[in-house]
Amino acid sequence: MENNKYEKETFNIYGMHCAACASAIESTLSKEKGVKEANVNYGTEKLVIEFDDKIINPDKIRKIIKQLDYDADIDNMDERTQINLENSKEKNIIKLRNTFIINLLLSIPIIYLEMGMMVGLAVPKFIEAYVFPIQFILATLVILNSLEIWVSGFKKMVKLAPNMDTLIFIATAVAYFYSIVVSIFIFMNMTMDHHIYFEVASFILVFISLGKYLESITKGRATQAIKKLIGLQPKDATIIKDGISTKIPISKLKEGDIVLVKPGEKIPADGIVIDGYTAIDEKVITGESIPVEKQIGDQVIGATINKTGAIKIEITRVGKDTLLGQIIKTVNEAIGSKAPIQLLADKVSLYFVPTVILIALASVFYWMFVGQSLSFSLSIFVAVLIIACPCALGLATPSAVMMGTGIAAKNGILIKNGKALEVAKDINIVVFDKTGTLTRGEPSVTDVVELKAGISIEDIIQISASVENNSEHPLALAIVNEAKNRDINLLNAKDFQAVPGSGVLAIINGQEIAIGTRKLMNDHNIDISLLEEEMAIFENQGKTTIILSSNKEPIGLIAIADTLKEFSIDAVEYIHKMGKKVAIISGDNKRVAESIANIVGVDTVLSEVLPHEKSLEIKRLQEEGNVVAMVGDGINDAPALAQADLGIALGSGSDIAMETGEIVLIKNDLRDVVLAIEISKYTFKKIKQNLFWAFLYNVISIPVAAGILYSYTGWLLNPSIAGAAMAFSSVSVVSNSLLMKWYKPKVIS
Questions:
Q1: How confident is the model at residue 325, as a pLDDT?
Q2: Helix (H) or strand (E) holding 213
Q3: 32-40: long-range contacts at Cβ-Cβ below 8 A with a sequence spacing of 24 or more?
Q4: Are 75 and 58 in contact (CB under 8 A)?
């Protein structure tokens, strides 16, 4: 089976007018050969697409979008691109505002003439004599001022790909041209029902332009998190070359450059301190309020603030590759993704407009069939077309996701996709990896026991460290560090062999050395039965016991302890408050794992689990009916993170773990597991609220517009009122999402 490697790219989309536009682009691209997945976000006007670049490329993707009458370009996420986008959006907001004001000013005289004559308001005789031509001229000017909507709607209708603009075009065109015909008949002194709808056509466009203006403002507010993240990037950097300091734009910074950062300045990009000592405020990235001390060899993060001393750093990552760049990319992709619940809304949006047109036509034929006038029936036709609103459905998820991911990012939590938001609410068990996740992952030697005469503690450490020096396991590093602390010289180890999850083997001075767990000893037929009592003492204290053997004879024990992270106990306590179970998974033996579990207070202990077995344990929990969140930090946690219903990776962990996890915690604070779940649950709650009101609005409003109440109450919905209701439905959905900015977590106080 061919293993295709898919590229992921983000495009800015221009010219979308409603959720149906987004659905049409998404549907078309998803059918293209080579496209794995395409998500179009109407709220952010972005496309996130995964594709096989051997089959389809960005230029072809852009051409396909162009054929649908939209424009697109690749979102480079650099500062200049973002400034251009913001300027473009600001110009569009101003344009929409001006369109609304002009439409309103032109429409007020129309409504005055129409309503004023009915209620006896003063109207000059000359104007009264030419009331219909005046209304015609003013209505025509309103339509010309909103011509973009008519052109878009007409094009989509001709291409049989109707959108919201199509509904507006048909409704206003029917009202406008019907009124022209009636006006001509009146001028010809022909008797007929002479009610005209110039005011309807005009005020529909007034309310539509107002709705688009307010929607553009609220959508802009919902993307504040992205704007703030981009704004964190410094503008320039001071590089040092041949002893000369030069200030350059941040865009020209390269990996390997040496940069001078003075107190009060921002770190220009990710790097390593090569000279100096300081404290750096990393709050903008990690949320941690206390400045972190940095010295030679320490890593620094771009966009953080140097507080005290001047330092020189060597740049290791620039642009998109920096931690801030990755955060911006992740948040952008997250708000471009969809929660599974949105798929229903997308399907509705795709078929919504054609369905509404059919309902409107059916309403016309019904009311004419039961004896109502053409004027009456057309009024209902226009009202049905105008009040329907797929935009509210399209904005329901992305507006809430934008706010939720923004809140999370502000707190040092990256939520990668909408699926994570939806799954989090159903999680009933959280599984923590032990080493490096619950514990610091920096164990140290606490006890050394000699088991053979003539073999000293120093000998045990020397032999063990000489072998373990070839391993990168945290326990191996603890033994090597102990040898360094004691100034013990290492021996030459040959034929090194790592046994995953069990230990290591080597040859030293002709002796067969084995260092590791009971399993390693048992697998090599080394008798350790007499050591069980001594090992149990250490293990009951939460210490890992390493056995050292030479030529299949045990010669020493090394006890190693890994301390808990600062907030491990608090995190477990908060998760229990949420009504969820907690499990610990570890390659350590049962006694050690249970000792840690007892201290932390977890419900289930999965011990002696080899790296490749972690995902199987997660799968077993799922088969028992659990919805599982896995929290890990290492490379060996990646399969389990992928298997879990929700993978949560620590930002201090491996790149593979962070790539696999659907939620990434930038800070090394396990309480953020709780906060991530809380934010996810709250965001999904908002999504459900938005979708409920959007669906309810259409379910109620369309039948009302079709005249369902007329037979019982004699009340008929005025098309202009329908236009106002439609305009504000989208604004109300986005406004509900904007309320999230005042969110405070309930569990963590």
A1: 77
A2: helix 198-222
A3: 32/56, 32/61, 32/64, 36/4, 36/6, 39/336, 39/337, 39/338, 40/13, 40/16
A4: no
Structure tokens at 333: 């992709």
Q: In this predicted structure, what is the pLDDT of residue 487?
A: 92
Q: Is position 270 annotated as part of the catalytic site? A: no
pTM of the model: 0.58
Distance from C-alpha of 50 to C-alpha of 41, rounded to nearest angstrom: 15
d(CA 283, CA 200): 54
User: Does 464 have pLDDT greater than 90?
Assistant: yes
Instruction: For residue 248, list its beta bridge partners.
Output: 237
pLDDT of residue 1: 37
Strand ranges inside 486-538, DSSP E: 493-499, 503-508, 511-516
What are the φ and ψ backbone dihedral angles of 406, each rounded to 5 degrees?
A: -65, -45
Q: Would you say domain 444-561 falls under CATH 3.40.1110.10?
A: yes
Q: At what angle do helices 719-738 and 374-387 cross, to 10 degrees?
A: 10
C-alpha to C-alpha distance for 512 and 256, rounded to whole angstroms = 45
- Domain boundary assignment for the chain: 7-75, 254-317, 414-439+564-671, 444-561
Give pLDDT tens digits for 172-210: 887 788 778 777 777 776 555 556 777 777 877 887 787
DSSP string, 292-322: EEE-TT-EE-TT-EE-SS-EEEEEEE-GGGS
Separation between Cα atoms, residue 152 and residue 524, nearest integer Å: 76
Residue tagged active-site, from 433, 459, 637, 672: 433
Residue 351: predicted pLDDT: 74
Q: pLDDT tens across 490-509, in order?
A: 999 999 998 877 889 999 99
What's the pLDDT score for residue 636? 62
Distance CA 295, CA 375 (A): 81
CATH code, residues 7-75: 3.30.70.100
In this structure, of 436-445, 456-465, 497-506, the range with the lowest mean pLDDT score is 436-445
